[in-house]
């Protein structure tokens, strides 16, 4: 296994895949932006295709920003991302989905991204907010392709959903 504290071209390609994989459902200009990565340490295994970024990890590309204590990328034979796992207390992600939908923000102890399905899974003290609405629970699955959200509480707790008031509603208060 080769390891290095410097970012190799292969590792940079791995990071580039995060922005490119999710940019189909975000601002088109994000994929054309430079990628900035900061970490205390980075390792890459040619044999397994696993890249680890450790310690205060920040990845930015356009409107996409991921922060975590650690991020692990699993690459396929063509050096495209299959999965990405970010862990932290909490790990966070944010990206402008579209101008109409605005900024989506997620936080959890663990954030899993499956590039094949386009699904982000937030696990452990999970919260997802977008367009004034929020979803909280132990596990939240969010489809970048469809915009679908599934939240589960677990441990006898309940899921919390908060929706902003309807702007077209002209009534204020409750009438007797």
UniProtKB/TrEMBL annotation:
GO cellular component terms, A-Z: cell outer membrane; outer membrane-bounded periplasmic space
Protein name (Swiss-Prot/TrEMBL): Lipopolysaccharide export system protein LptA
Family statement drawn from the similarity comment of this UniProt entry: Belongs to the LptA family.
Taxonomic path: Bacteria, Pseudomonadati, Pseudomonadota, Gammaproteobacteria, Moraxellales
Superkingdom classification of source: Bacteria
Subunit structure: Component of the lipopolysaccharide transport and assembly complex.
Major localisation: periplasm
Biological process according to GO: Gram-negative-bacterium-type cell outer membrane assembly; lipopolysaccharide transport
Annotated signal sequence range: 1-26
Alphabetical UniProt keywords: Periplasm, Signal, Transport
